[in-house]
Amino acid sequence: MKKTHLILLVLIAAAIVVLISYTGDLSSYETVSSAKQKQGKFVNLIVKMDKTIPVQYDPVKDPNLLKFNVQDSLGGKIAVVYHNTMPTDMEKSERLVLKGKVQGEVFECSAIVMKCPSKYKDNPNAMKEQPVTIAN
Q: What is the CA radius of gyration of the chain?
């Protein structure tokens, strides 16, 4: 076997090892039930706020403590604790992507990404009302 073939095989093997090591860091979206089975592991949840249970947030007493409940598309529910300020218009958001870990029966959230509703959702004719201009 030539020296270049041997070096090429070593580089390919190293690339495979690097790719395998990164697959553990890739995160996918979980349901509440699958996240509960992965206690202590970092997961992403796509959920809606459960508006039947009030949000617990007192910016005067503790501005870095937000507690609320969420529900996924399969009906799974979980309480969420977020140690940061409440995002603006969080209640108006259509969906939330929560990043964090399940600890017992609570989701310890480290980041919240809001999926906002379309501005044309309530008024389907709004798109027709606004003229479109094309600059040359």
A: 22
The CATH number linked to 42 is 2.40.50.140
Cα angle: 134, vertex 117, 127; to 5 degrees: 30
Phi, psi of 45 (to 5 degrees): -115, 135
CA angle 47, 22, 4 (to 5 degrees): 155
| Number of domains forming the structure of the chain | 1
Q: Does residue 86 belong to any structural domain of this protein?
A: yes
State the residue range of the domain holding 44: 28-115
Percent of the chain with pLDDT over 70: 79
Quote the distance between the C-alpha of residue 63 and its chain's center: 22
Instruction: Take residue 47 and report the two structure tokens written for it.
Output: 């959920």
pLDDT in tens, 61-119: 998 999 999 999 898 999 999 999 988 888 888 889 999 999 999 999 999 988 766 55
